[in-house]
Amino acid sequence: xxxxxxxxxxxxxxxxxxxxxxxxxxxxxxxxxxxxxxxxxxxxxxxxxxxxxxxxxxxxxxxxxxxxxxxxxxxxxxxxxxxxxxxxxxxxxxxxxxxxxxxxxxxxxxxxxxxxxxxxxxxxxxxxxxxxxxxxxxxxxxxxxxxxxxxxxxxxxxxxxxxxxxxxxxxxxxxxxxxxxxxxxxxxxxxxxxxxxxxxxxxxxxxxxxxxxxxxxxxxxxxxxxxxxxxxxxxxxxxxxxxxxxxxxxxxxxxxxxxxxxxxxxxxxxxxxxx
Length: 275
What we know:
disordered N terminus; two-stranded parallel sheet; 2 domains; 55% helix; 2% strand; mainly alpha
């Protein structure tokens, strides 16, 4: 598979740091193509929602990166895709505000899961815990091109960070572990850092918007209130975790803040948008 030409030489150079060009197709290409097909052909949200987490857990790093590149190539595609079994998911581009109120603890998704480009953007967001611009059919072509370039830049910023489960965490200093906690690292490294004896390291993980939703849920009961505050504010913390904190946290001010974030999208903590 030939490497794709990106919008600028700078972006191409950065992307090549983590995926070398190859003139021929290999096993990783076939695997990534098969997974992309699953993403675009899934009609059941319950199955779709589990795909990015499965990729991060089971696929080789190179295959994951090829999936991301393939998704980047499709960002401008407005091809319509079917989707059902949304449950309490609220897709901003498809539903009316009153529909959100009718869904208890609604999970808000800004990307349009009913188009190829929107679904690919959603998948990238889930894999890298980042936020990409929304590219809609009503935008002018030059605007779409600028947003695609912006998306590439966001992905580059995420992917050049450490992403290796073999990092010898136990040999690092507190400062190094805290820096690692603030970066994009393998979920197994996140799990180790979340149990670190040093408060600064656990705070770094709790603040990191790329920390997994499951791990944030575990850290919602951390012994230190500073860690729990960061969990409450993290944009990747799901509504169920925030709801639990609003009812059960031992700190009254934190319970109040959690309730405010849960019920007031205009609060300083921001809306709960990532499922």
